Amino acid sequence: MLFRPYSVSSRSASKISILKSCIQFRASISSLRVAWRKDPKLDQAIENDKQWRLSARVVREVLNEPGQVIPLRYLEKRRERLRLPIKIQTFLSRNPGLFDTYSDRIRPKSDPVPFIRPSRRLRQFLEDEKRVHLENEPLIVSKLCKLLMMSKNRVVSADKLVEVKREFGFPSDFLVNLVPRYPEYFRLAGAPGEGKSYLELVSWNSDYAKSVIELRAEEESRLTGIKIRPSFNWKLPPGFFIKKEMREWVRDWVEIPYISPYDDVSHLEQSSREMEKRNVGVFHEMLSLSIYKRIPVPVLGKFCDDYRFSNAFTSVFTRHSGIFYMSLKGGIQTAILREAYKGEQLIDRDPLIEIKDKFIELLAEGHKQRTEQLKLQRKMIEKDMELMTRKTETN
After folding, report:
1. In Å, how far are 15, 85, 112, 283 from 117, measured between CA atoms?
2. Are residues 239 and 363 in the same domain?
3. Does residue 273 lie within any of the structural domains?
4. Residue 250: its H or E element
5. Please, what is the Cα angle at 200 between 198 and 205, to 5 degrees?
6. 234 Cβ partners below 8 Å, 6+ apart?
7. What is this structure's pTM?
């Protein structure tokens, strides 16, 4: 015979089957598109925080100045960068509890100009902030360890961590004061701020190597006496629908065993279903560790290399719209963890959120003070008008 019949061994057949499966998965993932739909309630959750975040930006700007004082006109010039839509003087009059105004010279022989500095109330808030950070230091340490434990090489750029400190509730000086106190967990290499510094995990703590989803499954198993498999809460809000083929894909995807974000996945292909499952788990865990259970997508994008995210990672948030919501509020994409909210209210409250509550109380005191001042001014005007009317009638 010139030609021998070609037979496929069982091992080769298995490889071909796996290859076909991978190709089909790539095709199915690339062809599956979920239309973005607005969720007004979750958008409102972001809108509700707009005012205090704006005030917090102005406060941080002043606190970062030498001596924590700044000429009023200098702060006015930075208004565009601070995204402040009103003049600084108007902002101060609307928030009288934040700063004190006084006169001083910029140079020895120059004329005095208005300066601002933190008020007594603001300084009290800063003391409360320190207290909350100190009381929750074990939580902060565990968050920092978890972020390193999920990373590719247990190492993350220190500068990147500084950029996300507010998302996770880290103190401003955590690299200087907190990290050195825990040499059993952290090693800082390089000088922060120069772009070549890294925070490295020194030792692995198995107590931290459990995700929110795994802990939830363990708790449910304990309460019911039935072994519960770790799984995502995949639920769309009322009025949201996805196409039949997408529902079938999601159903099959949900059945894939959960992969902990703390597991070693160096053996997984980037385009595999398992890697998709793992990436969703990492995003879920990162959002769960954040204070407000939401993080701007551009911030997450800075960690692509550290956590092995693909360049097209943003599609995860729309493809898994029963787990996440992608808000476009404020002209920026923000990934939100659906299960952490009921309507527009955050129900999964991080202990560090007490800092925000204290700051809102500070703003409320200032607003109350302003309201009382306005009432007093109106009464004085009314009194003056009455006197003028009497004089006119008398004449």
Report:
1. 69, 21, 15, 40
2. no
3. yes
4. helix 244-254
5. 155
6. 250, 254, 320, 322, 323
7. 0.84
Instruction: Look at residue 36 and tell me if it is in a domain.
Output: no
Tally the domains of the chain: 2
What is the number of H-type helices and E-type strands within the chain? 16, 11
Same domain, 119 and 191: no
Within 8 A by CB and 6+ apart from 240, the residues are 37, 39, 321
Is residue 280 located within the same domain as residue 340? yes
Helix (H, G, I), strand (E, B) or coil at 280: helix
| DSSP label of 333 | -
- Residue 85 to residues 79, 89, 112: CA-CA distances in angstroms? 8, 12, 27
339 and 298 belong to one structural domain: yes
Say which CATH number the domain at 126 has.
1.10.10
Boundaries of domain holding 310:
131-354
The answer to whether residues 118 and 140 belong to one domain is no
Per-residue pLDDT of the chain (395 residues; tens, 9 = 90+): 333 333 334 444 433 343 344 334 444 444 566 778 889 999 999 999 988 999 999 999 999 999 999 999 999 999 999 999 999 999 999 998 899 999 999 888 889 999 999 999 999 999 999 999 999 999 999 999 999 999 988 999 999 999 999 999 999 999 999 999 999 999 998 877 666 889 999 999 999 999 999 999 999 999 999 999 999 988 887 777 778 888 888 888 888 999 999 998 888 887 788 888 999 999 999 999 999 999 999 999 989 888 888 888 888 898 898 999 999 998 899 999 999 999 999 999 999 999 999 999 999 987 777 777 767 767 777 676 777 777 776 66
